[in-house]
Write a structure and sequence with these properties.
The chain is mainly beta and 560 residues long. Helices cover 6% and strands 32% of the residues. The protein binds copper (II) ion.
Length: 560
């Protein structure tokens, strides 16, 4: 018998400080013939970030600080000229001034001006995104992915990290081989008119989108009026046979939700909205605006092309998918497959993700605990008309929120919103420190019949993740190990969520259908206002934050 010497492998453990990650984003608008991501023959202006739509990947390692300089060179008069950028899902502890929400956490960045967002990522890791939070400007293209990878990559340069095959610090890393820039998928909807023109008639609830855009590209329905040559559709991959891919999927839509599936492949869900979950294998899932999922897909089918399907609701194009399946979908391509469109057909799913089946991988108890909450708010959603009958207005809770001339954060810092402030007609709700809060979200659907499409609202809370104690249509509440996320859909049923108030700041809670937000479907929690002003949780403002308002307020309306 041979004795095999045991080789002791000692892994080096390096403790390093979190890095400062510096980014520069320059915003501009397309001109000429480039503004047609779906082949529609009439170009329109698109807001570009560093000359691309969607914007470039911003990535960091867990614990890093991000310093993101935004320069506003948006010049088209057909889109909103000023801007803000929100970092969706980032808690912004002590940095609510960098949350990027117009008239809540800052005044907008005026044309030809810059502002640097500065925020830590604390213990967060996962899939996030960024988008304009001024008016309906993100519908004009200001969207992009933001990914925070695990801490073991801290020593590496960014170039190195993006080519790493997987994240060794991720507790679920053994489940996948590839997780990089090419496995991030943004799915959005698109209008052939700029947002302000598409939604000029505010008596409608929202404009209908014209096409589905995957990673910035899609195909408009060709018809007899516009016989353009087939527009190229996005390609996911090429994937290498037998490797396992972590796809990070982000819904950047202004209205549309999608049923996602890949012909002949299953998907194992491991993350929702920045929280890893116990792996759950499904063959389709629904993703609402603002939400993210990480799914692992094993390339275990014969080399070829398969449809990556993102079936939209509403049915944007009234399109028979058998006629031109490239409408709405992307190509999932294997290495070695011909450069051709797939011929695979749709198989109805047998296992669709149910939101309440997701269990957080670590710390499964809800923020705020498993017992009774300190406070419960019933938050009804209603549709009303304005006094003149000239606009539809949504209410969330006791009223609507349209922003105030002085941002909520500035009002708190100057003392005009105190801890004692009662809920007023401005729809700002003061909440205390270290409370567990349940929100019962009550939809506006007619009883006894399925909700209308526009009555399904993905609601997003800034500054927090929350537990979904009872998802829409979930038979019984789960106080023990409910899913945690930052955007939840009221979808054919009421929803109860729970969060705790350990993050002082003004946090907007709003519908992520951007058209509904523009029509007032929002409220603002002024969380522990006294602690925003002073003490260990007090806000640290980026340079130039206060000056934003003076510059913006002096602009003529067409520059705002
Ligand atoms: Cu809504």
């Amino acid at each position: 018998m041979f004795w095999i010497p045991i080789l002791l492998v000692v892994l080096p453990i390096t403790v390093v400080d979190a890095a400062q990650r510096n980014y520069s984003l320059v915003l501009s608008t397309t001109s000429g013939g480039t503004g047609r991501p779906d082949g529609w023959p009439f170009p329109r202006p698109i807001v570009l970030t560093n000359d691309t739509f969607p914007g470039p990947l911003i990535s960091a390692q867990k614990g890093d600080t991000l310093n993101i300089n935004v320069t506003n060179l948006i010049s088209s008069p057909r889109v909103r000229r000023s801007t803000t950028i929100h970092w969706h899902g980032i808690f912004q502890h002590r940095t609510s001034g960098s949350d990027g929400t117009a008239q809540v956490s800052q005044c907008p960045i005026s044309p030809s001006h810059s502002f640097q967002y500065q925020f830590g990522t604390d213990g967060q890791a996962g899939t996030f995104w960024y988008h304009s939070h001024l008016g309906t400007q993100y519908c004009d293209g200001l969207v992009g992915p933001l990914v925070i990878y695990g801490e073991s990559r801290i020593n590496s340069s960014l170039e190195c990290c993006l080519s790493l095959s997987s994240d060794p610090q991720d507790p679920l890393a053994s489940l996948y081989d590839v997780d990089n820039q090419n496995t991030i998928i943004t799915i959005g909807d698109w209008n052939h008119l700029p947002a302000n023109e598409a939604f000029r008639d505010t008596t409608i609830l929202q404009p209908n989108p014209d096409s589905v855009i995957i990673n910035g590209n899609g195909r408009f329905v060709r018809g007899p009026e516009f016989p353009v040559t087939p527009w190229p559709v996005s390609v996911i991959g090429p994937v290498t046979r037998n490797l396992r891919y972590r796809f990070r999927i982000i819904n950047t839509s202004c209205y549309t939700f999608f049923n996602v599936s890949i012909d002949k492949h299953t998907m194992t869900v491991i993350e929702a909205d920045g929280t890893e979950v116990n792996p759950l294998t499904v063959d389709s899932f629904t993703i609402f605006p603002g939400q993210r999922y990480s799914v692992i897909v094993k390339a275990d089918q014969p080399v070829g092309n398969y449809w990556f399907r993102t079936t939209p609701t509403p049915n944007i194009t009234n399109w028979d998918q058998n006629k031109d399946p490239a409408v709405n979908n992307a190509i999932f391509r294997y290495e070695g497959a011909p450069i051709a469109e797939p011929t695979t057909t749709f198989t109805p799913p047998t296992k669709t993700l149910r939101e309440w089946d997701m269990v957080p991988y670590s710390s499964p108890a809800p923020p705020g605990g498993t017992g009774l909450p300190d406070k419960t708010f019933v938050v009804p959603i209603n549709l009303v008309n304005d006094a003149m009958g000239q606009a539809t207005i949504w209410t969330l809770g006791n009223g609507s929120f349209f922003g105030t001339a002085v941002p909520t954060l500035m009002q708190i810092l100057t003392g005009s919103i105190s801890a004692q402030k009662a809920l007023g007609d401005d729809n700002v709700v003061t909440i205390g420190y270290n409370e567990s809060i349940d929100l019962t979200l009550v939809n506006d659907c007619d009883p006894g019949v399925p909700c209308a499409i526009e009555d399904n609202h993905p609601l997003h809370l800034h500054g927090h993740e929350f537990a979904v104690i009872q998802a829409a249509n979930q038979p019984t509440p789960n106080y023990k190990n409910p899913p945690r996320r930052d955007t939840v859909a009221i979808y054919n049923g009421n929803v109860t969520i729970r969060f705790n108030t350990l993050n002082p700041g003004p946090w907007i809670f709003h519908c992520h259908i951007d058209w509904h937000l523009a029509q007032g479907m929002a409220l603002v929690f002024a969380e522990a206002p006294d602690r925003i002003k002073s003490g260990p949780d007090s806000v640290i403002l980026p340079p130039g934050w206060k000056e934003l308002c003076n510059i913006y307020d002096s602009l003529p309306p067409d520059q705002q």
